[in-house]
Every structure is written in structure tokens, then in C-alpha cells.
Amino acid sequence: MEAFGIFLVVVFFALVVGWTIYATAQRRKALAAWARARGLAFQPGKDGSMENRLGEFDCLRRGHSRHAYNVMSGQYAGRGFLAFDYHYITGSGKNSHTHNISAVLLGSAVPLRPLFIRPEGLLDKIGEFFGLDDIDFESAEFSRQFYVKSPDKRWAYDVLHPRTIEFLLSAPRFSIQFGETRVMAWQDKVFPPERFDQAAEVVRGVLDRLPEYLLQQQGQRR
Prior knowledge:
By secondary structure, the chain is α+β, with helices and mostly antiparallel strands. It is built from 8 helices and 8 strands, in the order H-E-H-E-E-E-E-H-H-E-H-H-E-E-H-H.
């Protein structure tokens, strides 16, 4: 009876490993097709350089054993495009947890300033109760639904004007961070292929709505 139990455990783990290998291969195949249809380069292997190349983005500095994979790059709607899945581990030993996320980045024609936008969660509301507030906007609905941080409030208000706020309220939800020359959108899980399109369109929508005076101002800074 004990031997039969061990046999079942072995079979179970074999099935889990087999399914993981199959699902990984199918995802790689789907993303390769997605990239090819958009004229993008596709590199499925591990890339350990992202945390150094893109170290300004907080989500790429979490945990340890970090690397990107399924990297797609090229041009998207006239902007430099980079997208990938990203792996990292938190904790160690029996308390370790593996995380995989997906991210999309689009380039900006002008230099940018730090700005972080993400859907607001329960912990944010608890933080507000204790005075750990984010930036609020005239749109009460936007302030309820999104957590916004920036060391420069004026920049946040310039970027998140009413048209952009309306756009984000109606768009799929992603965490968004402005780097120096590009903007990243991501979720704390891997995207199905079509969500890479959604993330790219959200970033493009934000960048395309930057006011002309702000583009001129940032262009002069460059």
C-alpha cells in the first residue's frame, strides 16, 4: 500500500512537470507567432541583463535569481518597443516563492520624469487611514481607483490631465511606471499574447496624450 502511494506521488509530479513543459512550449510558440505578426524580433532564452539595462523600474529589482525570457523587441506604432516575461524568486529554501510577470515598454520622444500609477488596492486604503497618502486628483473616481506617486506633483498633474484620466479609467488596468526615456506597463502575472497589445496601447495612449507644452518643455531639457 505504501509503495502504491509513492507510485501515485511520482506519477503526479511527472504529470505536473510534463504539463509545465508543454504549457511553456505552447506559450513560446504563441508569443513567437504574435511577435512575427507584428514584425518584432523574438528571443525565447534567458536574458539576465534587464535589471541592469532597466534598473530604474522597480518591478525588475524584486527578489533574486532574476531574468527575462520570451523577449520581443522592435517598433510598435512608431515607437521603440520591448516586451518580455520576467522571473524572480523571493525567500529561500522551503519558504521560497517563484514569481513570473509580463511587461511592455514603449520609448518616448522626449525625456521623462518619475511617475508611478497602479490600480489602488486594500493596503493603499489602509495606508491612507494612517496618513500614507498618494497624489489625489480632481476626479474622485480616478483617485479612488488609482494609486499615483511622483516626487514632482506638478509633473503628475501635467501628465494626468482630464483626457488622460478619462482614458485610463476606461482602459485595461496595469501598473505603469515612467523611466527616463520610456514607459513600462506590467501586471504581476504573465500575459496571454493579446494582453501585450493591450499594455502597449495603454502606454501609447498615455504618451500620445502628453500635452504639447509638456513635450516642448521636456524637449528643451533634452
